[in-house]
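Support request, please re-run this one:
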Amino acid sequence: MFGQRKKIKEILQHGIAGDKVTIMGWVRTFRNNQFIAIQDGSSQRNFQIVMPEGILSESDLKRITTGASLKVKGEVVNSTGKGQALELKATSIEILGDSDPEKYPLQPKKHSLEFLREKAHLRFRTNTFGAVFRIRHSLAFAIHQFFHERGFIYLHSPVITASDAEGAGEMFRVTTLPLDQLPKTEENEINFREDFFGKSTHLTVSGQLEAELAATAFGDVYTFGPTFRAENSNTTRHLAEFWMIEPEMAFYDIEDNMNLAEAFIKAIIQFVLDHNKEDLDFLAERLAEEEKSLPVDKRSEMGLLEKLQLVCREPFERITYTEAIEILQASSYYKKKKFKFDVQWGIDLQSEHERYLVEKHFKKPVIVTAYPEGIKAFYMRMNADGKTVAAMDILAPGIGEIVGGSQREERLDKLLDRMEKMNVPTAEMQWYLDIRRFGTVPHAGFGLGFERIVQFVTGMGNIRDVIPFARTPKNCEF
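Re-run finished. Output below.
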């Protein structure tokens, strides 16, 4: 009966000597035909099983190999060994699944992250990825809790859409048309009227526009779902499929938006600090060890835990885009030409610029506001200066931009002007314009790439290591 099993985490936290328990998990190591280290995924730590002589036959002993799954009944006893207070003295062991030691790729030794990416279906079983994905779970839970406690409505925005929220054009098309014999119009263009939806559709890049609609009814809403970008970017910061959290709030201005975003980031990081100490300690130690191989000037100035505690403790610095450009141009990095990309008013800040601001200049998270209108999306509210929009980006140490948001343009005439200037088709967006026609209100929102915050909290250097199965150019395994 499997429902009687106890999870290792529960035994380690609340178990007492004399408890009779049943545990199940996967073998990590087996030594001296007596000591089995077992893992069930609930904790960073293994649990030691002491197996009395004669409990298994010689043939079954040979089946206890790394990766094999076991069901073990026994008595919790005080441990005399180092590293654990309790262990399990087995009274019966059942081998549920064998693991051929000649073929199982995750033997008890250190594996590179590159190797584990090729074994993504098995890498959850390692200490590193066990910690990463338990923290990913905690962050997801904390996100829902944060918004629920503040009265937000959770909105499921569509994955398939005919609108482009970003105007970037880098989208995955959705179609049922036969690719070997596409129907054409008289103008020799693809006839999407014959497609499943009767028009050109694609996978969503954002749930923001739909969230704006809901915010004008419920006040405060948020989406949390998959989004897609068909960018041919093979970098440590980009994925073709990723998850986004996008709150949208009626009766909010840019200041309210910044306040909420800062409180949000602090709250979800604090949740992980409070609930994932074991996993964070392991990842902090792993990161510190990894950085020993880097040149001194490439190492982080603070450890993982120190960085997370700083974010939760210190108010975020707030500067305008213009002030950011002035700081960068006055820096020794700019004067000594250490930046790869030039720094001039009107450019889109690059990751190296963002990281300089947070890591070298302010040494804490920074919120940059009032960006030039030419580098931001059509829906952002025009400022009184006629040159900038009420946008805000939150920059974090080690990663750069982690949140992007804005006060939305609620004035119909201004929005129409911006859409015309940026060649956004108004005929297809009448549903979006209607919320400016019928009871328009100041409103704002932001987007947080979920994998970016997981990457920040875990200290992992590659975004492909914080999502279960990465979707990247030329890669769609599993």
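DSSP finds 14 helices and 16 strands in the chain. The first strand starts at residue 20 and ends at 31.
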